[in-house]
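Table S2 (text version). Query chain:
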Amino acid sequence: MYVATSSPQPARWRVAVDTPRELHRALFFRDALRLPTLPGAGHLTIPAPERSTEGSDRLALAWSHWWSSLLAHLRGGPVALAAHAGAPGLDVDPELDRLLADGEGEFKRWWTGAGRDQRGHKLELAHAARKATRAEADLLASRGQQVLLAVDVISLDGPFRHAVSRDHVVVSTAARAQADYPEWLARTVFPT
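Corresponding structure-token output:
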């Protein structure tokens, strides 16, 4: 997690930028199983290897339900879920849960970069998150209000934006790069 705060202390604002493993895990399996993407979300910026199992309509619906459950769990704070899809509070289709368990090793290699000639995806994303935090910091500093903002960044090539609450958002790397991102964030954090 990367944290930027105002000076002097005590901080008037704070931005905590994280790259949630569980959301990336869900997106990894969506792409690996060739399931439909979310509207406007696109695909992972570092592609997941396709699995031999092609997703059925039932599997696509099960994944969509799992994704909604993950986003709903964010309301209590950062994603802190068990390693398997069937964690307490998450109702996951048994077929999807089996495919997730079977592909867990693939996901771990993708997430850490094992077997590639580059840093792990997690490290690449964390570096990008630090560089892009300026927009959030500038916005909060300009308002002069005390705000604690959590930004969960997911590496998608589409402009995915989701407001968990007024002080917690989930955005794609592509959305953070868009010119209207600061305006959307301002409307989310400082509703009129």
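Notes on Table S2: Strands lie at 2-5, 13-18, 147-154, 161-165, 168-172. DSSP finds eight helices and five strands in the chain.
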